[in-house]
Amino acid sequence: MKKTGRGWLWAVVIIVVIAAVATWLIWPKDNGEQRINTAKAEVRNIEVVVTATGRLQPLDFVDVGAQVSGQLEVLHVEVGHTVERGQVLAEIDATVLEARLDGVRAQLRFQQAQKREREATLDLANINLARQEKLFVDRATSEELVQSAAATARAEEARRDAVQAQIEQTESSLRADEANLNYTRIFAPMPGTVTNIVARRGQTLNAAQTTPTIMTIADLSTMRVEAQVSEADVSRLRDGMDVYFTTLGNRGQRWYSTLDIIEPTPSIENNVVLYNALFEIPNPDGVLLPQMTTQVFFVVDSAEDVVSVPASAVRPAGRGQFEVQVMRNGRPEAVRVEVGISDRVHTEIKSGISAGDEVVIPTQAGMPPGGMRMMRG
After folding, report:
1. How far apart (Å, rounded) are the C-alpha atoms in residues 158 and 162?
2. Disulfide check for 342: which of 98, 122, 313, 347 has CB 3.0–4.6 Å away?
């Protein structure tokens, strides 16, 4: 038993020694030399951008409504249909309006008959007046009878004029009722695509107080992006600046345009002040649809095919000057450089080093972050 216990002890000692030797062999040796991280200066394009989230909307659209009340009887189109200007979109039940129109037409015919009757009575009164005036010249009647005949003629003329006024009023009502009957057939006010249908067949539309919307027609050949820019970034934007965007469904494709306008009235969401920046984009293929979410990039500054280094490699050297450390003969050497723009990842180097030079990436604690902002020199 005593020998067995000693055997186990020796076995544990041997295992510990083997592990220590293996660790010593595998573990990197510290020979006193400081490890240096480097990267090569490269030629690339650099952009300074303001990012925002936006929505796509049709540049031109119209909400088609009903101008008369009634039951929606027929819908001739569906969402996604392309329509032409003047095309019939829907029809409202016209039974009540047709009956009302028939009544107004009948009333107009009655008043026209009354007018003919009044005109005949007026003709008779004028004939009697002429006869009385002739008899008065021949001293065969009295002045009183002449005056009575004249008054009767004037009264009949007034009655005829009153009927004529009634006719004109009825004709006005007739035109209004004919227009309302025409309004039961709803036509497309513009060419475009039906993007939304609010009403449904059989629904009763009440146009007495407000115009009920039936559908929306939009011209999708040109879209507008409404991008919401924070108050911290809006001062960096300017009309006419380059802008591009991607969509959630196609992040690999960019659509390019220029900024049209920044709306001066902001919206406030969760205590964040946002301004709408608007620009247009052609959409000939119809791949951009309303309400799509976009990631928008406003190009504040850009440089193409310039020498650049990681932004963390550039260090301030005082008095607005900068330097980078370049590996020369295996050792880092400080070199003064003229910097251009920086996207906080890469910084443009206008002079001082060339593409292919190996620069040192600082790793010490407290070193300025790589994203420090550089202004164009």
Report:
1. 6
2. 347
